[in-house]
Amino acid sequence: MPFLEFEIPVRSWTAEEREIVMAKMYLIGFEGFTEDEDMIQAYIDEMAHSSEAINDLEDELSDLGITLQYRFHRREDQNWNKEWESQF
Question: Structural domain boundaries of the chain?
Fold first, then answer.
């Protein structure tokens, strides 16, 4: 199944803000996350994605003083284990 990959710049966020954002994204259907010091990548099944839920999340985070900026693109499903194993 296709999924959406959200790229969220987090350079200026605290560790607590990152955790809050990922926890709230999980609650609206995001299934996986990767992160480094500058970016969180969040993944959601394309069929589970809701623009309304994202808008509500942005408002909720704004009330906490967290500005959510992101870009996203569609990705085709792939065998992540096979991809990971090919790195070795």
Answer: 3-85
Burial label for 17, CB within 10 Å (0-12, 13-18, 19+), is middle
SS3 label, residue 50? coil
* H/E run at residue 58: helix 51-63
Written out in words, the top-level CATH class of the domain with range 3-85 is alpha beta
User: Is it the case that residue 82 has pLDDT exceeding 80?
Assistant: no
Mean pLDDT of the chain: 91
Q: What is the mean pLDDT of residues 21-38?
A: 95
User: What size, in residues, is the chain?
Assistant: 88
What are the start-end ranges of the E strands in 3-51?
A: 3-9, 32-35, 39-45
Q: What is the pTM of this model?
A: 0.82
